[in-house]
Amino acid sequence: MCTADQFRCKSGRCVRLSWRCDREDDCSDNSDEENCENTGSPQCAPDQFQCGNGRCIGQRKLCNGANDCGDGSDESPNQNCRPRTGEENCNLNNGGCAQKCQMTRGTVQCTCHTGYRLLEDGRSCQDVNECAEEGYCSQGCTNSEGAFQCWCEQGYELRPDKRSCKALGPEPVLLFANRIDIRQVLPHRSEYTLLLNNLENAIALDFHHSRELVFWSDVTLDRIMRANLNGSNVEEVVSTGLESPGGLAIDWIHDKLFWTDSGTSRIEVANLDGTHRKVLLWENLEKPRAIALHPMEGTIYWTDWGNTPRIEYSNMDGSNRRIIADTHLFWPNGLTIDYAGHRMYWVDAKHHVIERADLDGQNRKAVISQGLPHPFAITVFEDSLYWTDWHTKSINSANKFTGKNQEIIRNKLHFPMDIHTLHPQRQPAAGRNRCGTNNGGCTHLCLPNSKSYTCACPTGFRKTSSHTCAKSLDKFLLFARRMDIRRISFDTEDLSDDVIPLTDVRSAVALDWDAKDDYVYWTDVGTDSISRAKWDGTVQEVVVDSSMESPAGLAIDWVTNKLYWTDAGTDRIEVSNADGTMRTVLIWENLDRPRDIVVDPVGGFMYWTDWGANPKIERAGMDASSRLVIISSNLTWPNGLAIDYESQRLYWADAGMKTIEYAGLDGSERRILIGSNLPHPFGLTLYGARIYWTDWQAKSIQSADKRTGQGRETLQGNLENLMDIHVFHRHRPSVHTPCQVNNGGCSHLCLLAPLPKGYSCTCPTGINLQPDGKTCLPGMTSFLIFARRADIRLVSLDIPYFADVVISINVTMKNAIAIGVDPQEGKVYWSDSTLRKISRAALDGSQHEDIITTGLQTTDGLAVDAIGRKVYWTDTGTNRIEVGNLDGSMRKVLVWENVDSPRAIALYHEMGFMYWTDWGENAKLERAGMDGSNRMVLISNNLGWPNGLAVDRAGSQLLWADAHTERIEAADLNGANRHTLLSPVQHPYGLTLLGSYIYWTDWQTRSIHRADKNTGANVILVRSNLPGLMDIQAIDRGSPLGTNKCGTKNGGCSHLCLPNPEGFSCACPTGIQLKSDEQTCDPSPETYLLFSSRGSIRRISLDTTDYTDVHVPVPELNNVISLDYDSVDGKIYYTDVFLDVIRRADLNGSNMETVIGQGLKTTDGLAVDWVARNLYWTDTGRNTIEVARLDGSCRKVLINNSLDEPRAIAVFPRKGYLFWTDWGHVAKIEQANLDGSARKILINTDLGWPNGLTLDYDTRRIYWVDAHLDRIESADLNGKLRQVLVSQVSHPFALTQQQDRWLYWTDWQTKSIQRADKYSGRNKETVLANVEGLMDIIVVSPQRQTGTNACGVNNGGCTHLCFARASDFVCACPDEPDGKPCSSVPSMQPPIPETTHASKKSQTAASRPSSSTTRPHTSLETTEGNCSGKEAGQELCRRANGAVPATSGEGLHVSYIIGGLLSVLIILLLIGAVMIYRHKKSKFTDPGLGNLTYSNPSYRTSTQEVKIETIPKPAMYNQLCFKKEHLSHPSDSLSPFLF
Questions:
Q1: In what order do the strands lie in the sheet with 700-705?
Q2: Dihedral of CA 1044/1048/1053/1056: which sign?
Q3: What HEC string does 483-543 produce?
Q4: Contact 520, 528 (CB under 8 A)
Q5: What residues contact 1024, with CB distance under 8 A and at least 6 apart?
Q6: Is 60 helix (H, G, I), strand (E, B) or coil?
Q7: How many whole angstroms separate alpha carbon 792 and alpha carbon 687?
Q8: Comparing C-alpha atoms, which of 968, 975, 971 is closest to residue 948?
Q9: CB within 8 A of 200, min separation 6: which ones?
Q10: Integer angstrom CA distances of residue 1029 from 817, 831, 1007, 1024, 1037
Q11: Contact residues for 1213 (Cβ-Cβ < 8 A; gap 6+)
């Protein structure tokens, strides 16, 4: 490689750059003389002479008598050549030469040694000072007589050319901001990588090499951010008070962050995490841009492109500030320091130049002045400069000494901004940390200077000593600027405004403060809320955020800790405790856009401005007493108010009159203080002798003398959106009031008032004071309650005004729709259709609980039977009407047939009726008994969207609101005498009545309205501006409830007692039949379907006809696939492929426990051997079939070869058989003994995706669903007598069968459970529709798990596993020994017990041995029993290895053998006859026909692709993947089949 001052010849040889185009072939291949036409005159080397014609010749050729230049310029008379004499000879006195002499053409020619140059006398030699030539050495240069030596700074080494320096360490990387991202590029290889992306507008940039951090500023977000150099851990460092942070620099020695902001005209400093932020320089700054640090010297340098562009520097503590350059500058953008070269470089985009100077500004020189369209930022490394250019969108480089060797490193960039060289030598660690290890002893900031350091304080904080800062601010100006709230400290001289770090400030208007708790309060008309935080921004919280429309004024009563505010939207003045509790309306009449408010706890008065149609300033007691207008003339827009306690005056600003005025506190002696140069005053405050105000139009904060208006000053200018202003201080007058002693005896609010009263008690909104004048009633007696999607609110009817109060329930509501109230307990009930819950809480917001959390979709209607203590609801999604106890227990479906879209529901307990509206295709209004009996349609014509419904008991009429016909109508309780009360009403939704009024919510007007219930007249607006209004109820807790029809003992019912017109009836929860006594119920159904749907396990009773699914409350269900049950212990077993576990729980959902928790991948099939107490499962991920005891012990792999995708599995304990489906490459159904032996393929032809599998133990047939051939088939236990039962099934997944006649299956495509006759395949019908993610299904029935085998008693005498087989049984040991001896020989001979049903009821009988036992291991048809958990506890399950058949004793009796042979012969004859019959009658579905198919399941994603195949299906299908990497969501695990 050639150095920066060398030229590379084509041959690879390096020659001096100055020899290029000197008309001499220095390269020997003439490549240094090519393309020289436009180079102009070359510059000759120091030991050369430049001829008049531009040619360079050696100095020794001067005055040698020969015309070496060709133009005679090297000889006399052009040169002062000595006259030649013939006596000259080098042998005589060295020819008179000082050093070297040689004879040329007979004359003496003096020359000098290398490192010297010949003087004008042609004989003397003088040392050449190579160090004087710029760039001769890269960094350091030491000259000596006749020689020189280049040297390098620490961290660099001299290259072989002995002149240039190479930085030690890694390869340099150029780090640059690109607006939308931050990238890095290798300058020598142009490798280009992304560091951070998805940025808004990244401009300035720097890094901290040792901490591996990158910092950048974003001028769109107005933030300074940082991240690790690998792009991780992005976080905000400075997020407030920035306007245009265009420059940024890191002090890597003292760990400080410096930045410039051309918007605020400041240079600030902070710690690397943004703490202890300080305005360092603020005076005489206009548009500071680039900034560079020299931490070793303790200095900072910056450019300013304001009206007087300049480059300045100062110490890093802000001292010793000086201008380095202020001429020939216009847009000085980039700035960088060459630490090794002790120089600075900068770019000027307007002058298109790169310049350099010494660090003190001396020796300024242009490096590049051509080919720079718009340079922006610059960095330096070794001998090269690198810069970004906006115009060319590129990064370029050049030699830092000469500006030559220009290259484009990278072009076609998005928008290159700041640039830095990422290398340790750009942040040399050699510098001394002036602050040492203890931060210089400073409590806050330690800032270095050229000699030592200075302790500094964050902006606004005063220094209490040379090293310490005040811990808090004592005096500061507080002002709002819509999007932020700022302070200007009066404790320091700089008067810099500092943004209080708050979140979500959208449109702050009014302010106040309380020094006692260090709180700042503000109103926000963007969020319609009042918030507070400590003055430093911590402990931020929303105080009031409901029922406000434009809170524009705010005042703190610092004596009793009250918060007063005005609301120009609701035209109210309200008060609450300082934390927002006990809120109440003080003034609600005759207000027209109230604006500012101030309170005077000393005098007990409050004052406010009102700038409505008749602008005025009013006064009242702080309890709203003694209200009086004090100023009402010559006002236009009275804005800010302030009280001067010293002079007992009231000051105000009027933006319309453009004045600041004052008067006495009673309005007398009114004077104009300032009447000129006030374009639009807004906020106003007083402190000391000064008055301060904000001005919208002047965009400034100003002050003047409060008595004279003279001495006007501008504290801050150029501030947009200025709002309220206050001075925070700690000298507010203290006042002793009656409220300070025992809260004045008040139960709730104690408010100050003018003397003589001094105070008064008041109650929260809507609640009345008791006659004692001090105590409030416990709550509202008569009120409206309504849902507003995200909250529930009350409107009291006990008071003379309408004000809505949010019930503060500590829960997030998403879509609260229907609402009901239990006046007896004072609780509100509501449905949330997004959360799919019904919940309840006390009217004060406490005691929140969810009462119904499953089986809901869109609960549009809800009614509380407060007399009967029940809750009723309608569900438009499930199309059901249900009832339950108030706690959600004993839930029952009342109406499920012929329901389209039920909505509103209303009850009349005394009459035993419930009424509901249905706005389905045929809208109607129906009635039934409250037990679901005597159902009838009352009204079915001229209805559109019947939303609200109410029963008028007093008037014996029904009222309903119809949003489609835009009417509120009425009829009597039988539907007769129908008439219109109100029309048109725009979009009524909820409807209720109380007393002589009806109330309704309206979506269109976003309001609550009221009218007379009999005539519909006198319509008034109750509350407006309430988006999201839903249901509404009117309640009077004072009226008696009525008598419960069920009496005191629940009508003698064991479960539900429900009223009807005749009296009442007893009822059972959904799915359970009432016993013949018509009073009592079983705890659960006898026969039911149990099915899984990913996140739930549900049951459908087969004892009743409603087929309603009821959730089994098993916890922690994520992705349940397979199910089975054990009737002996009453347990559900299930697989969860998200958690990869097998678990079990009681049939009621309790006692959930993990059975198998390790070593599972995708457990698709599960089967319980209820006799031997074993659990079998298939694992598609591992392609195994495994077994374990029901408690998970004694685990063993049974089959792990020749399995492709095993899915469903079923056991036949009585026969000792195991069956499974495999839908791998070659689909098949197989059978083996329960120990895995005698394995054989039953069916392997005409199969696609055999999913579900079930056994009929009575008819001894297997049934399966094929999700590819879309049919359900059956065969006998040997795979013969195969029959297609149901064809054209969309996408069946699992199936089960009921002993009597039905097959049930789940279907993915129709999202339903269906059934058909298991003998004929006919009578196909849907049992349950619209269920997402349907998986396994089983029938739970006492008749299902019957029969026994030799393992049924005492585990067959086996220590660990007992497996029944077709004619005997075996003992086996687990794969992993457990340390307990495992015997493969039975320890006792199991007897032959009586045959019983292995249900819970027969558990004792099943385990009782029979006295007639004669043989140990006979055919399994005749052996029964079970191994309960008791035997397992007695260590009858011990682990070891191996499995051997148990011996059969002395052999079978001869009569048994003969009988068996005859039986086999008869069976074979029957089979033959059936096959002949089927061959004639039945034809299989052609698998080649195209039909609608789903891709078969993989349980790792929720998407199931539907493909319409119009071509014949291929014979082979790719297998399913159940890999974990396909997991898309914890609750969704089905991925599509891949073709």
A1: 681-687, 690-695, 700-705, 713-716
A2: positive
A3: CCEEEEECCCCCCCEEECCCCCCCCEEEEEEECCCCEEEEEECCCCEEEEEECCCCCCEEE
A4: no
A5: 1005, 1006, 1007, 1008
A6: helix
A7: 44
A8: 968
A9: 180, 218, 220, 221
A10: 8, 14, 7, 10, 23
A11: 1169, 1170, 1171, 1172, 1234, 1347, 1348, 1349, 1351, 1352, 1364, 1420
Of residues 838 and 1402, which shows the higher confidence score? 838
- Give the Cα separation of 201 and 417 in Å (integer): 10
DSSP for 1356-1375, written as a single string: GG-SSEEEE-SS-EEEE--S
Does the pLDDT of residue 601 top 90, yes or no?
yes
* Amino acid 731: pLDDT: 84
| Mean per-residue pLDDT of the chain | 86
| Sign of the torsion formed by the C-alpha atoms of 1415, 1419, 1425 and 1426 | positive
Distance CA(1427)–CA(1350), nearest Å, equals 10
| Coil, strand or helix at 1405 | helix
Q: What is the pLDDT of residues 486-508, one digit of tens each?
A: 999 988 888 888 889 899 999 99
Structure token pair of residue 1511: 């071509």
**What is the band of 810 on the pLDDT scale with cuts at 50, 70, 90?**
confident
Residue type (1 letter), 471: K
Residues 1013 and 996: their CA atoms lie apart, in Å, by 6
Question: Strands 1217-1222 and 1206-1212: what pairing?
Answer: antiparallel
The span from the CA of 443 to the CA of 437, in Å, is: 13
Q: What is the pLDDT of residues 234-255, one digit of tens each?
A: 999 998 888 899 999 999 999 9
pLDDT value of residue 1457? 53
pLDDT tier at 984 (50, 70, 90 boundaries)?
A: very high
Instruction: For tokens 């077994």, name the residue.
Output: 1187
Backbone φ and ψ for 32, nearest 5 degrees, come out as: -80, -5
Contact 1012, 997 (CB under 8 A): yes
Q: How many CB atoms lie within 10 A of CB 79?
A: 15
Q: Which of 257, 369, 264, 247 is nearest to 311 (CA)?
A: 247
Query: Two tokens at 923?
Result: 């809208």
Query: Which one, of 1334, 1324, 1282, 1276, lies nearest residue 1304 by Cα?
Result: 1324
Residue 769 has what DSSP assignment? B
| Contact yes or no for 1537/1498 (Cβ under 8 A) | yes
Q: Amino acid letter at 101? A: C
Is the pLDDT reported for residue 1397 higher than 70? no
Q: How many CB atoms lie under 10 A from the CB of residue 1097?
A: 23
Cα–Cα distance between 1157 and 869 in angstroms, integer? Answer: 44
Region 1088-1117 average pLDDT: 90
Written as one string, the DSSP assignment of 1059-1084 is: EETTEEEEE-STT-PBPTTSS-B-SS
> How does pLDDT run across 735-792, given as a tens digit for each residue?
889 998 999 999 999 999 998 889 999 999 989 999 999 999 988 999 999 999 899 9
719 and 701 in contact (C-beta within 8 Å)?
Answer: yes
Distance, in Å, from the CA atom of 580 to the CA atom of 603, rounded to the nearest integer, reads: 24
The answer to whether 242 touches 227, Cβ cutoff 8 Å, is no
Span 659-664, mean pLDDT? 96
Amino acid at site 229: L
Position 652: which residue type? Answer: W
- Which three-class secondary structure state does DSSP give residue 331? coil
What is Dmax (Cα atoms) for the chain? 156
